[in-house]
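[09:14] KT: can someone run the structure on this one? pasting the chain below
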Amino acid sequence: MVDQARARRLAKRISSIVATAIEYEVKDPRLRFVTVTDAKITGDLRDATVYYTVMGETIDDEPDYVGAAAGLEKAKGVLRSKVGAGTGVKFTPTLAFVLDTVPDAARQMEELLDKARAADDAVAKVAANARHAGDADPYKVERDADE
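[09:31] RB: done, structure tokens below
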């Protein structure tokens, strides 16, 4: 049986080691704007998936996703060696790097929420001056005077 707590701790340690190695030890210029966001490890502790994001040099610049992926693939052996030395587990897990799509999904969700708020405001403005169609009480029945 797999100890899930141990797997989570090891995944967290792997993400920390990889992030530190990318920042301070790997001298590839393609990895300057790479940020490690998360790591997951399989139950047998043999395969680790490291999630990362890439930023542009400025806010307006498009990130170099292809260059970052190539740089990570080239540095995979060095990073795996650092993980092996830093974790001390019997079998050093293989590393797979996956571009994290959570920031893009969050940005798209925020845009959709802004559109929904704008549509709600437009409906509220129209409804503020609206009146009921027909009588105020459409079920009112006229009664005879002798009743």
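[09:33] KT: thanks! The radius of gyration is 29 Å.
[09:34] RB: yep, looked fine to me
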